[in-house]
Design goal:
CATH architecture of one domain: 3-Layer(aba) Sandwich
Number of helices: 12
Strand order of the largest sheet: 3-2-1-4-5-6-11
Helix content: 40-55%
Number of strands: 13
CATH superfamily of one domain: NAD(P)-binding Rossmann-like Domain
Distance between the termini: 47 Å
Bound molecules: nicotinamide-adenine-dinucleotide, thymidine-5'-diphosphate
Length: about 350
């Protein structure tokens, strides 16, 4: 079976490729990725010589790029990870999010529809986020039936892409599934996202920017657990269905930052607490207060639940980033520095980076 994995050079996509190549010997992967600032082939270095893995550089929003790959390879299924994924960047420049997340998903669907024809076995699996549901207050959780209410250009563009996937399923009888997952963490996450960013700032002994009062809550899932959920849904999920995927692990941002300070300090045998680096900065506009996923559907129907508990996952993650300082330093180059200084110029007045 040959899978077209889009966005496979990013954080979750590369973890998924490692996972699926390892657990399914019958699977061949074509990784189709534009290699934006977030795409990094170093994540897949060990697969370079694997005959079941091929990389193709291409843009999901360019019909010709997508046609070329479908022309060249017989594709048995698509898993669409490709996206612009960072909320703060979507505030600085929304249009690239509309282009990739909406036009890109539509282009991919349209080409897949043509090549899949009426073969009901050929599945299009779209990877989405819980952020499409908007913000929760102190209680409650997102179910698959929760109405969409996105707050950021990122989540609005992901919501648009989800609607298109469902519409192609209903209108053209395509075999589609969608997974809406909570915040992931683990190896290969680009250090603009909270957890790797904070680890890097602690290591460098620089201010740690916490938005608002740090009271916002996210439901964290170790990336390997997400990969296992995607595998279950791709192979066993029901046509046309949506599955919510979450970690049952709600944490306030400030608690995560404190924990990371303590874990890194312990590992580096530091005497002075890095908590002194915490700097409360201007809040993110439209900042969703709380996300939480109700996992009961995927648990009941497909027998999936998270296996890695939060404390264990955080220890593994800290260890990975400390051991892979070079991986981080290699990507903290031109584009990242530009983004970081634009993003934090106002927020961190005394920033020295
Ligand atoms: P990422 O930013 O780390 O990786 C995105 C990848 O997509 C990169 O390799 C990039 O080069 C590629 N890409 C971007 N635009 C492209 C285009 N036009 N054509 C082809 N490739 C393109 O993102 P991630 O965190 O790995 O997220 C993957 C998917 O999972 C996204 O769809 C995201 O919305 C979703 N998601 C992420 C999280 C999370 O916590 N990171 C949670 C839920 C859902
Ligand atoms: P992020 O990793 O950007 O994921 P998302 O916005 O998709 O949930 O942010 C996670 C939480 O951490 C979010 O509430 C915003 C907050 N945050 C900070 O407080 N400081 C930071 O420097 C970043 C990047 C995020």
């Amino acid at each position: 079976m040959r899978l077209l994995i889009t966005g496979g050079a990013g954080f979750i996509g590369s973890n998924f490729i490692h996972h699926i190549i390892k657990v399914r010997e019958d699977i061949e992967v074509i990784n189709f990725d534009k290699l934006t600032y977030a795409g990094n082939l170093n994540n897949l270095e060990s697969l370079k010589v694997n005959t079941r893995y091929t990389f193709i550089k291409g843009d999901i929003a360019e019909p010709k790029d997508v046609e070329d790959v479908f022309n060249k390879y017989e594709i048995d299924g698509v898993i669409n990870f490709a996206a612009e994924s960072h909320v703060d960047r979507s505030i600085l420049g929304p249009l690239e999010f509309v282009r990739t997340n909406i036009m890109g998903t539509a282009t991919l669907l349209d080409v897949a529809r043509k090549y899949f024809g009426d073969d009901a076995e050929k599945r299009f699996h779209h990877i989405s986020t819980d952020e499409v549901f908007g913000a929760l207050g102190d209680s409650g959780s997102f179910k698959e039936s929760t109405p969409y209410d996105p707050s950021s250009p990122y989540s609005a563009s992901k919501a648009g892409s989800d609607h298109l996937v469902r519409a192609y399923g209903r209108t053209f009888d395509m075999n589609v599934v969608i997974t809406n997952c909570s915040n992931n963490y683990g190896p290969y996450q680009f250090p603009e996202k909270l957890i790797p960013l904070v680890i890097k700032r602690i290591v460098d002994e620089k201010e740690i920017p916490v938005y608002g009062k740090g009271e916002n809550v996210r439901d964290w899932l170790y990336v390997e657990d997400h990969c296992k959920a995607i595998e279950k849904v791709f192979f066993k999920g029901k046509n046309g269905q949506t599955y919510n995927v979450g970690g049952n692990s709600e944490k306030k941002n400030i608690d995560i930052v404190n924990l990371l300070c303590d874990l890194v300090d312990k590992r580096l045998s530091r005497d002075i607490s890095s908590r002194k680096l915490i700097t409360f900065v201007k809040d993110r506009p439209g900042h969703d207060f709380r996300y939480a996923i109700d996992n009961s559907k995927i648990k009941k129907e497909l027998g999936w639940e998270p296996e890695v508990n939060f404390d264990e996952g955080m220890k593994k993650t800290v260890e990975w980033y400390l051991e892979n300082g070079k991986w981080v330093d290699d990507i903290i180059s031109g584009d990242y520095r530009k983004f970081f200084s634009k993003q934090y110029k106002e927020r961190l007045k005394s920033d020295r980076s």
